[in-house]
Design goal:
about 600 residues; eight-stranded antiparallel β-sheet; 14 helices; Elongation Factor Tu (Ef-tu), domain 3; alpha+beta; Alpha-Beta Plaits; globular
Amino acid sequence: MPSIDCQHIRNFCIVAHIDHGKSTLADRLLEQTGTMTVREMKDQVLDDMELERARGITIKARAVRMEYKRGGETYELNLIDTPGHVDFHYEVSRSLACCEGALLLVDAFQGVEAQTVANGYAAIEHDLAIVPVINKIDLVQARTEEVADEMRQSLGVVPDEVVRVSAKTGVGVQQLLDAIIDRVPPPKGDPNAILQAMVFDSHYDKYRGAITYVRVMNGVVRKGDRIRFLRAGAVYEVLELGQFVPRQRACEQLQAGQVGYLICNIKSIADVHIGDTVTVAQGEAAKPLPGYKPLQRMVYCGLYPSDGQDFTELRDALEKLSINDPSFEFSPETSEALGFGFRCGFLGLLHMEIVQQRLEGEADIDLVQTAPNVTYQITTRKGETLEIHRPQEVPDPGQIEEFRQPIVRVNFLIPDEYIGAVMNMCHERRGVQKSLEHLSAARVMLTYDLPLAEVIYDLHDKLKSATRGYGTMNYDLIGYEPADLVRLDILVNGNKVDALSIICNRGDADRRGRAVVKKLAEEIDRHMFEIAVQAAIGSRVIARETVKAMRKNVTAKCYGGDITRKRKLWAKQREGKKRMKSIGSVDIPQKAFMAVLHTGDEKK
C-alpha cells in the first residue's frame, strides 16, 4: 500500500449519550464512503459482539478505516465508535486520546443528556475539534432548533455550526463527511521520526495470540520489523499488520497518523498493557507516550465457580477477558461458604453484569456471584490507612479511628416538573445539593454530592421511575468523606456467612438487617431442623427470623391410650432435631446472595 500524506488523514470518534444513534450513524458513514456494500450491510455493523447485539448497546470501542473522495483528492477517515453508557466512560477516554476530532451527537427529540455533557467536556479536555451533530431530524416530534439552543447553553456550541442529519435515512451524511474534512485537523505526526505508537485496545485470538490495536503517532512500522513494548520491555517481530475496513485487512506498513492492528504472536498476556508505547527494538527508542489515567474501580464483588472444580478454567477465562477489557481487575480469594474464587473490581453495576455474562457465554462457566460493594477507607488507631474492598476486611470497631466512604458528584438532567421527586430521592440517600441550572424553559440540570454506595445499586432505576424515563444522570468520583458506617454480619444457624456481610450506614442498619433476614428466610429451603437467620453488628444481634423445621407426625400411629406414650415420642423427636442441628449444614441458594443486594435499599 503506498504511503499517504498526513494532510489527507482524519482521525475522529463519535461521542453521545446512550441510544442517540452512534452505531447507526457509523453504518451510514460506512455506506456513504463505499467501505461496505448494501449487500454486506446489517444494522449496527460495528456492534459485532453477541452480547452487544442482544442488548442493543455498544460495549467495546471499535476502529474502522474509510476512504472518501472529494475534488480529486482521496482522504483516509479513521472512525472509532465508542460506547455511551456511563460505566464504559473509560473506553471513551481511550478513544479520545487517539483522535484529533469528535462528532458530538445529540438526539433531536431527547436533547442534551447527562452523558452528552460528560463526553463533550472530556473531548474538550483532550483538545479535540468538536463537530456538533443533531441526529434523528426525520422524527415527527423532532425539536431541532430547541435542541441546538440547549447545546449552546450547556456546551457553548454555535447553533449555525451544528450539522443536522438522520442516520436512519441518510439525510445530511454527505454534509457531515465534508464537515469532518474541513473542521477536523490532520494528525501532526512525522513519518520520518523514530517509531512511536500507542496501544489503545487489544483482544485475544486463540490461534494468533494477543492482537494489539495501535494509533501510530510518529514514524512507520512495517511487516517484519522488530518492535519493543516499553512498559513490559518485551521485543517481538511484526508478523502481520493492517487496518479494519471493518474486517481485518493486512497491509505492508502503517505510518504516522494511521490506526490499525499488529499481530506479533504474543502468547504472554502480561506483555500487553493498554496505554503502552510501541517503538523500535534496536537503536534509540522513542519516549513513552503519556498513556491513560489510572482507573478507579467503583464496584467489587466475588465470582466463584458453582462447581469448585472449575477454578482453573475460571482463572484462564478471566485472564483472556482482561486482555480485551483492561478496566476490570481480579485477585484470588477464599470464602468459607463458597470455596476458592476471585475478588473482581468493576467500573459499575452494568459493567459487572456484562463481564459475568461474557464469562458464562464465552467460557461456558457457571458462576456464583456475591453481593457487590464499593471501596471504603479506614484509618486505624495506629495511624494506618486501609483500603476495604470487601466487608470481611473491616477490623474490630475498637481499632477504627475513622471510616470513610466514596462520594460522587452526580449531574441529573431532568424535565422541570420532576425537580421535587428527584430532590426527595437524593435527600433520602443523604445527598447534598450543589447547584440547579436551567438549560431551557423545560429542562434542568441538578447537581448533588451522594455516597457512591447509594448511587450504584438502584439510583438509575429509581431516577427512571421518578421521571417517567426522561431523566438521565452521570457521575464522577470526587473523594472520600468520613461517615458513621458499620459492618452488618449475617449468621445462619449460628455461623457467620462471610459472603453475605455488608457495609452500611449505622442509621440504616436495623432496617436493612430486618429486610435481609426476612428475605433470606424466604429463600432458604426448610431443613429437618430449625434454622435461625440473624443479622448482627459485632456481637449485638439486631434482627432474627426462623426457618421452621420440616416435622414428621411421630404420634400418627397412636390411637388413644395414655398421653405419656405420645410425650415420650415427642421428647425423642426433640432430641433428634437438637443433634441434627448441631451437625447439620445449611444449603444457601445463589438467589439468597443477591437478596442481600436487593433488600433494604427501598426507602420507605
